[in-house]
Specification:
Strand content: 15-25%
Number of helices: 21
Radius of gyration: 26 Å
Shape: globular
Distance between the termini: 35 Å
């Protein structure tokens, strides 16, 4: 081994990294890559969207991953660095807790074993995934990976459903993991998930389906509207001679379209609160053979493993970790070890993710849903045959319905273990509702289709602890009152600018302000109250009231008590209603005074138009985005989904800015009509490419800021009309 290292060092000195990399590649492998590349064609259109055509499904996957790497290899790599639990090797010891958290719940050994036993068709796709990336790295020696210079075919089995928030561990977080396993002495970073923090980066999604009865053309309509971190998903079109013809958004580094459509139907996922992970307080002791836990009166051994973590610039850490029959031990509370039962990855989930992209009817799609391996999502569906449907969750374990499963359970009782999965027909769903429409905005399923919505009393709470939110109220209102829709009208509905939360909040503030003794008020206070009183709660670039309301609302959220409901969800609407009823008008006025002071300090006036403050800018491609008030940006009328706006746009100020810049919200948006031929329009935040020198780095920026969609090129004749380049990988 030492001799090999010395040879590599000499090679680096005399010939450079690139030549050494080429020598390492097996000639047979290289010939196979070159042969496969000839079976793939990539056509880029006027917006840089890759239209990938392959002989086989595997060829299409090869081309898809190659194209993704062309657009943003860094994000492809970073997603797998995270899922491998190796971020500390890149960013240093502050990421050790996050790495350990991932390694406890995503087993690399299981992923490797599942790859070896995969059906042949899947193994071909997995190999094509790795080959597409590795061939890209071979062809682009100027690209310097942060860590992963070679990708393995089992990597996709670490991350199997495509969701940005696919990991569920109940109430356990990374900080508890660090403390339990002795990492808390390090300076650590954690994934922040604080629902009370108005500065937290909110994610979510909207999904709409319109049936023939609500459609002007009689064709079903579909609206795809994920709210995720900007530049997290690109737009792709993937085709093969084996029947693959799918368009939509793919999460960087995955080989299936996550939210999209084919010629027969479309699928949209929204984040769900369905309980898919539970915590148990284990009674433990030190036995003769090691640690034991008590179950039904018997002491059983706790399994010990070792996880080796490596932080940049530090020696490796070998950490003993513990598991019982439920899963990993991840925390300690009140002297009890806390185990986690979850289902965060599986080959079945990956198969389901791929299989839905090739479904040809509602019945086939429902059959794929019946695999019940999607843990983190609700699913909205619309199809060419006019069928529309909604399923709240998919993987739903059976439990005792009278128990609040958001709480930690008694680990000594096996009766509290999961009892299999609910059949698909038992979970909350709405299929071909009489109302003719479906909407879900990360909210309760019991408003999903108006008067045709499922009835809450028929389901256990753990199936749908989700609360109502202001986006849900807005969408429910719009669909309930609208006439029949066409594609453009559906887009217009999806871009409704009403901030419904302020219909509750602002009248209460105005009432308190008008009844206040003005001797206690600043000179600008009355003007601000008058401005808010005249506001119609709609988002506009020139709205001063919107600036006042949102800055005031953010501060108010920190003061409004939240009550956790049975099942674990927090209902913001009920919390706000209770706060308003409590009669704290003076507190609301005092917060407005603080907002006015801040605006005067930062801007020299409290009369700041929303579009002057709220901006869209893309000046670099770092994972942690950077912004600069001195550089060009676009004004954006949209606001956070917290306030009920359907086209979500979450922005905030940074340490070096007084303007607010968008970081997540509407990302890939697409509206589809399933007629004799597919008609679709789409929009992507910023642009397709992560290369700052590419013409497609920010070419959709102004369109995004204005909500102006582009035409989707779904058929080959349209793709060729708009072709700007065509090549083999």
């Amino acid at each position: 081994m030492k001799f090999r290292i010395i040879l590599l060092s000499l090679c680096l000195i005399f010939f450079g990294t690139n030549l050494c990399q080429a020598i390492e590649i097996n000639p047979n492998q290289l010939n196979a890559w070159k042969a496969q590349s000839k079976r793939v064609k990539i056509i880029r259109d006027e917006y840089g969207v890759p239209h990938i055509y392959g002989k086989s499904d595997a060829d299409a996957v090869f081309g898809l991953l190659y194209a993704q790497c062309e657009d943003d290899f860094m994000r492809v790599e970073m997603n797998y660095i995270e899922k491998l639990g190796r971020k500390a090797e890149v960013f240093g010891p502050s990421e050790l807790a996050n790495d350990l958290y991932i390694r406890l719940i995503i087993s690399q050994e299981e992923a490797k074993q599942e790859y070896q036993t995969s059906p042949l068709w899947l193994k071909k796709l997995l190999q094509a995934y790795a080959d597409g990336i590795n061939y890209y790295l071979y062809k682009h020696p100027e690209v310097k990976p942060a860590l992963l210079s070679h990708f393995e075919p089992w990597y996709p089995l670490l991350w199997t459903d495509g969701s940005i928030g696919a990991i569920s561990t109940g109430s356990v977080n990374q900080a508890e993991v660090a403390k339990f396993y002795g990492l808390s002495g390090n300076k650590l970073s954690y994934i922040k998930k604080n629902p009370l923090d108005p500065e937290a980066d909110l994610t979510g999604s909207n999904g709409f389906a319109v049936g023939p009865a609500k459609s002007r053309s009689g064709n079903s309509l579909f609206y795809i509207n994920p709210h995720v971190t900007f530049y997290f998903r690109p737009e792709v079109h993937v085709n093969s001679e084996q029947g693959l013809h799918v368009y939509g958004a793919v999460t960087w580094g995955q080989f299936f379209v996550y939210q999209g459509f084919n010629q027969f139907g479309g699928w949209m996922h929204t984040s769900s609160q369905v309980d898919v992970a539970d915590n148990y307080a284990e009674t433990t002791r030190e036995g003769k053979q090691g640690r034991e836990y008590l179950l039904d009166g018997k002491w059983l051994p706790i399994k010990e493993q070792r996880i080796v973590l490596q932080a940049k610039g530090q020696p490796a850490l070998s950490i003993p970790v513990y598991f019982n029959h439920r899963g990993p031990i991840m925390a300690e509370r009140n002297g009890k070890w806390i185990s986690v039962k979850s289902y965060n990855r599986s080959i079945k989930s990956l198969i389901q993710s791929w299989a839905r992209t090739k479904t040809r009817s509602f019945e086939e799609f429902q059959s794929v849903m019946n695999m019940r391996a999607n843990t983190s999502n609700n699913t909205v569906y619309a199809g060419k045959n006019g069928r529309i449907a909604y399923w709240h969750g998919n993987f739903v374990p059976k439990r005792q319905p009278e128990i609040d499963w958001s709480l930690v359970q008694d680990g000594t009782k096996s009766s509290l273990d999961w009892k299999g999965l609910h059949p698909l027909k038992e979970i909350v769903q709405s299929i071909d509702p009489a109302s003719g429409w479906i909407q879900n905005c990360n909210s309760t399923p019991f408003t999903v289709s108006g008067f045709s919505s499922p009835q809450k009393s028929k389901y256990p709470v753990y199936m749908a602890p989700d609360a109502e939110n202001f986006r849900d109220r807005n969408a429910f209102r719009l669909f309930s009152t609208s006439e029949k829709l066409n594609l453009d009208e559906l887009i217009h509905l999806g871009y409704n600018r009403k901030l419904t939360a302020f219909e509750l909040l602002i009248p209460a503030l105005v009432k308190a302000g008008e009844s206040r003794n003005m001797t206690n008020s600043s000179a600008s206070f009355k003007g601000a109250i008058d401005t808010l009183k005249r506001w119609d709660y709609h988002a506009r670039l020139n709205s001063v009231a919107q600036t006042l309301a949102i800055q005031w609302g953010q501060k108010m959220l920190l003061k409004i008590p939240r009550k956790q409901m049975f099942g674990g969800e927090i209902d913001l609407i009920q919390s706000i209603e209770a706060y308003i009823a409590s009669g704290k008008g003076e507190e609301m006025c005092q917060v407005l005074e603080i907002v006015l002071q801040d605006l005067n300090k930062n801007w020299g006036t409290w009369q700041v138009a929303w579009g002057e403050l709220n901006r869209l800018q893309r000046i670099g491609n770092q994972v942690e985005l950077t912004f600069d008030d001195a550089q060009a940006s676009y004004p954006v009328p949209f606001a956070s989904s917290t306030w009920g706006m359907l086209p979500s746009y979450n922005s905030k100020a940074f340490s070096n800015t007084k303007k607010w810049y968008g970081v997540n919200g509407n990302s890939f948006i697409c509206a589809v009509e399933f007629g004799p031929k597919i008609k679709a329009k789409s929009l992507l935040a910023g642009g397709q490419s992560g290369d700052v020198h590419s013409p497609h780095f920010f070419d959709q920026g102004q369109q995004y800021a204005e909500g102006k969609f582009k035409d989707v090129h779904f058929y080959i004749e349209d793709v060729l009309k708009h072709q700007k380049s065509a090549y083999h990988p």
